[in-house]
Design goal:
By secondary structure, this protein is of the alpha+beta class. It folds into two domains: 32 residues; 113 residues, Sandwich (Immunoglobulin-like), CATH 2.60.40. Helices cover 16% and strands 46% of the residues. The protein has two helices and eleven strands. The strands form two sheets. Strands 2, 4, 7, 9, 10 and 11 form a six-stranded mixed beta sheet that branches. It has a five-stranded antiparallel beta sheet with strand order 1-3-8-5-6, with no helix packed on it. A hairpin with a 3-residue loop joins strand 5 and strand 6. The longest helix is centred in the N-terminal third of the chain and has 20 residues.
Length: 156
């Protein structure tokens, strides 16, 4: 029986092809499951330049997970100086969360995923406000600050 297999190269070829397929699978598919690393996020959009006193100001922006790891608790920190008060954030049009201690937090965000955010602020009185928004995972910043000035005008 062994003498018959010595001349037959088919088992060697089959084993070689199987090993090559296994190595190819590991090289191509394994990186897709890599969720380690430091979380990273980026806010994008346009901040309005004016608001009206006594009314709510809505700001639509996007949060992009620019890393490969999962952001386990997606948050937006708002640092406001002037007559604006942060109220809440609507994450992906579904999850409505109030600001507490300068932050509003939603669920998790997979690597490479982008979600929409609708931030609500109350314009208190006429004046100038400085607004800085930072993506965070819990209380830890994970990206650069998105900032600008908003001029609050008197109601007409």
């Amino acid at each position: 029986m062994l003498s018959g297999l010595r001349g037959d190269r088919r088992p060697v070829v089959v084993i070689g092809v199987a090993v090559a397929l296994l190595i190819g699978f590991v090289i191509v598919v394994a990186p897709l499951f890599n969720t380690s690393g430091r979380p990273a996020g980026e806010l994008a959009g346009v901040l309005p330049t004016t608001a009206v006193a006594g009314r709510q100001l809505e700001i639509d922006i996007a949060l992009d997970n620019t890393g490969v790891s999962v952001i386990t608790q997606v948050c937006v920190a708002a640092d406001v100086h002037g007559p604006l008060r942060p109220l809440s954030v609507v994450f992906q049009g579904l999850d409505h969360e109030l600001f507490a201690n300068g932050r509003a937090c939603g669920g998790s965000l997979s690597g490479g995923e982008t979600i929409s955010l609708r931030l609500l602020f109350q314009a208190l009185r006429p004046g100038s406000a400085q607004l800085a928004l930072t993506p965070t995972e819990g209380s830890h910043p994970i990206g650069s600050t998105f900032s600008g000035s908003v001029r609050v005008t008197a109601a007409a």
